[in-house]
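Researcher: Good morning. I'm working through a list of sequences from a screen, and I'd like to move beyond sequence-only analysis. For each chain I'm collecting a predicted structure so we can compare shapes side by side. This is the next one on the list. No need for commentary yet; just the structure.
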Amino acid sequence: MMTTTLLTLAGTNAAMAHVKWFCAYDLVGAPRGLDEVLCADFEKLVGLSVLALLVGGLLEGTVLGAALIRSLDRTTAWARANTELMFRAVLGAFFVALWTLGGVILTPELKTANTALPWFQLAIATGFLWRRTMPLSALGIVVLFATAVAEYGAFHLADYPIFLGLAGYCALTGLGRALPGNVRPLDLVRYTAAVTLMWASVEKWAYPQWSYPLFIEHPAMTLGFTGEFFMKAAGAVEFALAFALVCTPLVRRVAAILLAATFVTAIFEFGKIDAIGHAPIIVAMVAIAADNATAPYRLRSLALTPVGFGAALAAFIGLYYGAHALLQGSTVL
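Model: Good morning. Structure tokens for this chain:
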């Protein structure tokens, strides 16, 4: 129980800030070797993550789980009824903030000298005033994402597929459509948010040293653990919560609440830059927490959770290291 509590606290503090916004980073340098990442501590943290997901899934099929879902439905009723309004307001404010800051494409570390982009961002913000113009704002987000890829490379922008999910949400909502297979606009946000956070988790394992300067400035963050172990724990918790976003309704809603609380907590520690940078994902987490879409409860699906988690973990570690070797030229695999 103590280990689980410490792990939860570690994840809550570790996801506070996107390290690239506050510390020096080097994507060209080789990531930490897999022999150092996949150590005994890593296996224990993965085991705890799987256990937490299984407990959450088992709880969902009980009377207590049903009561928790009803409670969530009541407390999130306003957010659910106003999901579109929340996205439009927060994304509009986000792009106004980028226009005010200037010299930023989409996130704080994506700097640009293009003086036309701030006015383009203001135009994107204006598009959120009306539903009919949301698809135009969505197109603007895609243009900004493509601009960032051109300037910083595909590997760097693999950190931010959430922006493509938000663009998809805005386009589909503005047009009043859904994707084939009854994939709703919010589902698209949920899936891309999960991918974004799972990728970020692997980066914590691959480059733990990027965060060490933060630990010097904020020593309480590590809870007394070494920086190495803390980053492994932080990545494990973040990966588990991200994976939970694609799980059953109660599990993903609780995960969204924990993630939203994490990002909001970061604002008090790291200030307005963090508030601006994390605003889109915070509103996404609130919307997911409020989403009352249901799904049949199946024990078979629960039994497959460890398999799915293991496959996702292997896939993202393999993709990260493989993409780094292909696009950045590293030789550590």
